[in-house]
Design a protein that fits this description.
Elements lengths: L42 H13 L21 H7 L2 H4 L11 H18 L3 E3 L5 H18 L7 E5 L5 H8 L3 E5 L9 H7 L4 E7 L11 H10 L3 E6 L18 E4 L1 H4 L14 E3 L26 H37 L15 E4 L1 H7 L3 H10 L6 E2 L8 E4 L7 H20 L1 H5 L12 H6 L9
Parallel strand pairs: 2-3, 2-4, 4-5, 5-6
Antiparallel strand pairs: 1-7, 6-7, 8-10, 9-10
Helix pairs in contact: 2-10, 4-10, 5-6, 10-13
This protein binds pyridoxal-5'-phosphate (PLP).
Length: 464
């Protein structure tokens, strides 16, 4: 399709009425060079252009999007409606507080609900995303240890089944990262954890359920061990949709947790953001939070109150579902993932094959050995059936990994369709592997050099 700069419609500009003010010529010094062949498009053409462009983008409103660990679930439209109320949109963060009492009320109410949901005592909405929440939480840890004169706690322990942002955030917050390998059951290896703990431990960051979709077995023991060593326990709750209304990080012994409102609480992400990664903590850490008003606060991590309208949407989601609805959402997330895992397990290898939570990981190592068809080939082939591929080659502890998260908002029909496609792709891999290697065939671009496209994106229009 054409770029917007390439249109030369004869009807361009026809919707602008004749000028009724006297003509005026700019002085020469302000004039650019004459541009003969000025691009132009009619209003009809403009609408068609952007609609066509939008239709080339794959989104949740277009089809199944089982991108593991990303919770690409339906974003209720009522949340958008509420967040566009003028009382929420026509405000300024510097206006006097007594004029925005309702908005303060939204933040307080949402904070109370999130405290109840996580078992924490306070929440800050400042962080703009999950990784930003991690960073903020780690700064709380640092401030806590330093406030006690304990300057030697410079290490964060991160299991290898953690989300990739965990070690990155720890490094960014100035900690050394100790990576501990998982046990054969895919959970934290207690002996390895014990060996890693010591007087230099600032804390442990645990993604639970972990990226294999497994709920940590020894969760209470883990947090107790960290505390006994003088560290704090951090809960990566980005994927809280697996345990929402069922289990609480606070009850598991965690001191700090971040949530992704833009996953669990149904607010848009992946191009539709902005996000919000609130951080919750126990009472003894409250004074360190951004905006706590205490001298011990870690200070600002983002301007003003964070992404306020995202909080409005999340609050609507919580109030709409209520206690029972949140609990049901978690049960459906887990049910859908287990159903899909069981069906795919008929042909595909599921390495950690016990009950999963909101997601599961398949290994295509055997398929690749037998047919030459890789996880990438299967993922690309899904595109031709109108689906977004799952997360690929992550977690690193599974070779040829495909990580599926169907989410709670998909129907059995959609999940069955996806399973039918994937099972038939498995057969095609044996019968006609070349077909899968040539996929996708229905997209404008087939297979870009993924690493180069990500690291050296050329997004500029180059004429000619
Ligand atoms: C998505 C995710 C993150 C990071 O969240 P962002 O908003 O993308 O920064 C962290 N941890 C887990 C487990 C996640 O799924």
């Amino acid at each position: 399709m054409k770029l917007i700069f390439e249109y030369r419609d004869s009807a361009a500009g026809s919707y602008i009425s004749e000028s009724t003010v006297p003509e005026y010529s700019l002085p020469d010094e302000y004039r650019g060079e004459d541009y003969e062949d000025f691009p132009g498009v009619s209003e009809t053409g403009l609408c068609r252009h952007y609609s066509a462009l939008a239709s080339k983008t794959f989104g949740l409103n277009k089809g199944f999007y089982p991108l593991g660990s990303c919770t690409m679930k339906y974003n209720p439209k009522i949340s958008e409606d509420m967040a566009s109320l003028r009382g929420f949109t026509d405000i300024h963060p510097l206006q006097p507080e007594h004029t925005v009492k309702g908005c303060r009320g939204v933040l307080e109410l949402c904070e109370n609900y999130l405290c109840e949901i996580t078992g924490m005592d306070a929440v800050s909405f400042a962080p703009a995303a999950g990784a930003h929440g991690e960073f903020t939480g780690l700064m709380l840890m640092k401030a806590y240890h330093e406030s006690r004169g304990d300057y030697n706690r410079k290490k964060i322990i991160v299991p290898d089944s953690a989300h990739g942002t965990n070690p990155a955030s720890a490094a960014m917050a100035g900690f050394g990262v100790i990576n501990i390998p998982s046990g054969s059951d895919g959970c934290v290896d207690i002996e390895k954890l014990s060996a890693a703990l010591g007087p230099d431990t600032a804390g442990l960051m645990l993604t639970n359920p972990n990226t294999l979709g497994l709920f940590e077995r020894d969760i209470l023991r883990i947090t107790e061990m960290v505390h006994n060593a003088g560290g704090l326990s951090y809960y990566d709750g980005a994927n809280l949709n697996a345990v929402l209304g069922v289990a609480r990080p606070g009850d598991m012994g965690f001191d700090i947790v971040h949530l992704n409102l833009h996953k669990t609480f149904g607010t848009p992400h992946g191009g539709g953001g902005p996000g919000s990664g609130p951080v919750g903590c126990r009472g003894f850490l409250k004074e360190f939070l951004p905006g706590s008003g205490s001298k011990k606060s870690i200070g600002r991590v983002k301007a003003f109150y964070g992404n306020f309208l995202v909080v409005v949407k999340a609050l609507v989601y919580i109030m709409m579902l209520g206690r029972d609805g949140l609990h049901d959402a978690a049960y459906n997330a887990v049910l859908n993932a287990n159903y899909m895992m069981k069906r795919l397990g008929g042909k595909y290898t599921i390495p950690y094959n016990r009950g999963c939570m909101h997601e599961f990981v398949a290994s295509l190592a055997d398929l690749k050995k037998n047919t030459g068809v890789s996880a990438l080939d299967i993922a690309k082939s899904m595109i031709d059936s109108g689906m977004h591929p799952p997360t690929m080659y992550f977690p690193l502890i599974v070779s040829e990994a495909l990580m599926f998260e169907p989410t709670e908002t998909e129907t059995k029909e959609t999940i069955d369709f996806a399973c039918d496609v994937l099972l038939s792709l498995y057969d095609t891999a044996h019968e006609n592997p070349e077909k899968l290697k040539a996929s996708p065939t229905t997209t404008p671009v087939g297979r870009p050099d993924e690493a180069r496209a990500a690291r050296n994106p050329v997004l500029k229009y180059i004429e000619g």
